[in-house]
Amino acid sequence: MKHALAAAACFGGLTALLLAPAGHAGAGTIGVHAGMTMSKFSRYPGDVAPAADGLIGAFVVQPLLAGLGLQAELNYSRKRAVLKSSWWDTRDNDLGIEDFDQPEPMPALARRIAYVEVPVLLKLAPLRGRLYALGGAAPALRVQDDTYRNHRSPMPTAFYKGRLGVGAVVGGGLSLAVASRVASVELRYEHGFVNANELVGKTRTLTVLVGCAL
Q1: What's residue 186's pLDDT?
Q2: Residue 88 burial (CB < 10 Å; 0-12/13-18/19+)?
Q3: What are the chain's domains?
Q4: Between the CA of residue 21 and those of 8, 16, 27, what are the distances in Å?
Q5: Looking at residue 197, what is its pLDDT?
Q6: 45: preceding bond cis by omega (within 30 degrees)
Q7: Fewer C-beta neighbours within 10 Å, C or N terminus of the chain?
Q8: Beta-bridge mates of residue 113
Q9: What's the pLDDT at 97?
Q10: Res. 117 pLDDT band, cuts 50 70 90
Q11: In the chain, pLDDT over 90 holds for what percent of residues?
C-alpha cells in the first residue's frame, strides 16, 4: 500500500508541476482513460499465449511548444498471459528437472501481474487532422502477481510483490469531439525492460484505450 501511495504522490506532484502557470505554452488538461491490455511474456514465448485484461487511470497534459506536449499518467494496469502445458516441459528441461512421477501434462495456467504505473510521455499533436503520436518511459511498481488455473483458482505468489520495473511506450491515437468534451481512442505498445518475475521474463503489452478530457 505504501508503494502505491508513493506512486500516487509522485503523480500528484507531476500534475501540480504540469498545471502550474506556463506562460505562453497554454493551460494544461486533465483526463481519465480506460481500456484493454493484451500481454505476452518474453521467456519461452512459444509456450505462452497472449490474454486480455484491463487498465484504468488518469492523465494530465501540459503544452510545451506548438504541437508538442508532456503527458504524465497514473495507471493501474493488469497484464495477463496463459502458460500452456508445454511451458512446464520447456521450463523443466531448461532447469534440468525430470518429472518422472507426472504421467500427464501440467494444466494450462494464467499468469496475472498488476502494476501501478507512472508513464511520462511526449505527445505530438496534431500530426494530420485529429491524429496524434506519443512515446516515452513508463516506470512501474508491481503490486500483484498471481497464477490462476483455468483463469479462476488463484494461487498467489506474494514473494514477487514490490519489484520496480520500467518500460518504453510508443503509440498513437485519434481525438474526437463528443458534446462539449474531447475524447480519444488510442493504441499503444509497451516494451518492458525488467523481468516481471523469474519465471515469465519481461512483459510485452498492446493496449487499446478510450479517454476523455475533464
Answers
A1: 97
A2: buried
A3: 2-213 (2.40.160.20)
A4: 22, 10, 7
A5: 73
A6: no
A7: N
A8: 79, 145
A9: 47
A10: very high
A11: 42
